[in-house]
Write a structure and sequence with these properties.
The complex is a heterodimer. Chain A is α+β, with helices and mostly antiparallel strands. In chain A, 61% of the residues lie in helices and 15% in strands. Chain A is elongated, with a radius of gyration of 27 Å. The relative contact order of chain A is 0.14. Chain B is built from 17 helices and 22 strands. Chain B is elongated and about 110 Å long. The relative contact order of chain B is 0.10. The chains are: A alpha+beta, B alpha+beta. At the A-B interface, helix 4, strand 6, strand 7, helix 5 and helix 7 of A face strand 1, helix 3, strand 4, helix 9 and strand 21 of B.
Chain lengths: 344, 634
Amino acid sequence: MEFFRIRRDIPFMRHSLALNVVSFVTFLAAVFFLTTRGLHLSIEFTGGTVLEFEYAQSADVNRSRATIEALGFGETQVQTFGTSRDILVRLPLRGDVKQAEVAQTVFDALCRAESGTLTQRQYVTEQGEAVSRAACVQAAGTEPLKLNRTEFVGPSVGAELARDGALALAFTVIGIMIYLAVRFEWKFAVAGIVANLHDVVIILGFFAFFQWEFSLAVLAAVLAVLGYSVNESVVIFDRIRETFRRMRKMSTPEAMDHAITRTISRTVITHGSTQIMVLSMLLFGGPTLHYFALALTIGILFGIYSSIFVAAGIALRLGVKREDLLKANSKERDPNDPNAGAVV
Amino acid sequence: MNRYPWWKYAILAITLVLGLLYTAPNFFGEAPAVQVSSGKVTLKLDDSLVARVEDVLRKAEVRADFVQFDGQSVRARFADTDTQKRAKDALTAALNPDPDQAAYIVALNLVSRSPQWMASLRALPMYLGLDLRGGVHFLMQVDMKAALTRRADSLAGDVRTLLRDRNLRYSGVSRDGDSIRVRFRDSQTASAARTALEEQFPDLTWADALDGADPVLRGTLRPEAARAVQEQALQQNITTLHNRVNELGVAEPVIQQQGLDRVVVQLPGVQDTAKAKDIIGRTATLEIRMVNETAEGQAALAGGTVPFNSERYLERNGAPVIVFRQVVLTGENLNDAQAGFDNQTQEPAVHLSLDAKGARIFRDVTRENVGRRMAILLFEKGRGEVVTAPVIRSEIGGGRVQISGRMTTQEANDVALLLRAGSLAAPMEIIEERTIGPSLGAENIAMGFDSVTWGFIAIVAFMCAYYLIFGMFSSLALGFNLLLLVAVLSMLQATLTLPGMAAIALTLGMAIDANVLINERVREELRAGLAPQAAIAAGYERAFATILDSNITTLIAGLALLAFGSGPVRGFAVVHCIGILTSMFSAVMFSRGLVNLWYGRQKRLKAVSIGQVWRPGGTGAASRGDVADRATGG
């Protein structure tokens, strides 16, 4: 099997202006949605309480919402989660309410709406682990709903996490830029990072447009994908350098076309195999990993796009010349450089 | 050219064996066990308890797989839950004859079913995080300002004592924020006092000031002393939390410092936040103060204004008590508190034992105040309550104090527990809380496991179809990477969380890149017309720099997450970074080893099975591809 049977170099650079314009427009759209709609930040960043209940039967979201709103915790979100029996309740931070007791109060109210009472249940699991939990029990002894998960984040933590997230992003961007600048040349460093930051902004744009929940895990996915797809640009730049050296008659756009065409097969296959894994996470990972996998999926797809169509185009626009690369390389001879031996 | 020296194969073989050995414990599952730990601060466990537990079990005719001491607690593993339950009952009865004064905590627990010889090689399974296991997680913020204020309060008391001892007349000592203000009537005394204070309190810096006409000395804590106070406060709070959690009887609690002023508490198996919070969140601190029995105090009791130097608190029965602001003793000086009975009256009582400094202060105070009342206050969540306000009958020396009167046995137990565990150096507040139900945890494990399995199978299927034998080698290398990753994580005794499992999946997805790079490069070299053996060697060599590049950029992002991430993101980052490192080894060295074993010894290698190598333009050009593949590939 061989997926890519390309006879002639594809003239990517001839269309680079159009492609860059397309990217720019997508980028602007992402920025537009980010500013107008904003990210739907998870409570990890905003602070607040999240509760996950599992009903024995299909949950009546409206009734649950009415019950919780009657408690007066402010703007409450109630929605189904995963299956129709699971509901997710989001409550904002309120200065006048004792956060530590919110979960208990809500559980109590929902339990009473099902005409049950809260009791303490202590039992030993089949494996032999002692468990104690609060349970909602009806007169008949059945449990109409269970409190599966609670999460409370105070206001100070949220602000800190947002700051740390920004720092991590900055650290990654600067680290990769320094690496690219040392490895190649500053124009490539700028082109590589711009192309991949444009991916990051587009991922964020998707999250803003669809109002998907942006959590810490999504942030981790975004950073992981940033580090991952920059390397695709590295491979292409590597090839451009090699092409410059081997084919002295080629013009800069021609050399770029040649390099991209030669690497397109592996770009698509490597990203594709990573995407297989991510898809498996999206399909089997359940609701907890859903947005994480979604961010990775978008990131990987746009990673392919920007590595092939955007990065080199930006470098060309920044005025990369044959001399830039060859000069930079002759100064420091890299013993690990695979192209060192390829000089004709 | 494609041959490894014997030592490289030896390295691969050894890593493989080590990987298998350290991964294995994760697959044995868990067996029911009983854990015996100390129920009292004063009781330290040692090896002798093992013999005692074995003895009890033998008498009760319960067979344990093993009984061992792990430094904190004694654990006994059993074949099934029935035996476990019988063992627990027998141990509880034997070790705690009086349930009211339990010296040991006997709790049900799970331990790994892996064989003993593995455990002795420190091959232990990974810990499962709360999101996979179910449990409660708290992040608590220690109120450092309160710790400093409290320290300043007690220093103000010491300053008073010193000045009185030295006969230096002052007109007032007060705490102002974190600093201490001492007022004098004349500057001569002030300067004499300054010399004495500077000598006696090296932790404070003193500055002169004037308040109207009166000279004032203002003492502030030196920054390093303040830091020490904060560190001590945090340490004491952690110890206190340990004691409280021990009372809960949780099997494997985690109580750790996080950052400068935070404490993480994780209680696996506990689903009941209310109960856990009740015990942990009970931020009780103890203070002993004198009751204001002056005329002003009496007037305040009757409804008048409370004098400036006093505060009004309620007793448990609702009766108000006016106590001085000045603190005689705090929980810091309390060593232990036990419930018991009064020797004479047989009333329930709480026995306190104070440390040396506390004992000295207590002796002095009781000697000077015979016949007056002293109040023991407990501060919970910022609210103070008078536990008891007894009359001092005589001087009490030796640091042994008994609180009695108007208590039931249960109340005496509660007060003792609160006082013992309640000596927090600074109040704490829960700033993050997470509970995960046990069923949800099991679901998360299954989901994480499914993602990794299906993703792995799909990748292996694709690789084998697209690259044939080279794809098989790549798949084996990927499996080896998974094995190594799990082995390293187990060796480090890392905690596996759901984001960690996601990181395993993602890392595998990225690790296969290296093999795709190699295989593509080998194909390319074949396309360029190199002989098979040369193409393999060149492919591996030339792909290496690219692999290094890609791993470095990924590692930069991973390190950023590790440095700035917290909680779940950290778990992700640790696995991600380790996975990148192991993938370098497995994708390059291990897969090369397999290729060398397979093709390396064939001198006249005609073709390698790496899928079809297509060449632009040429018709018979695909000749170097595998024969079988040419037939099917088209």
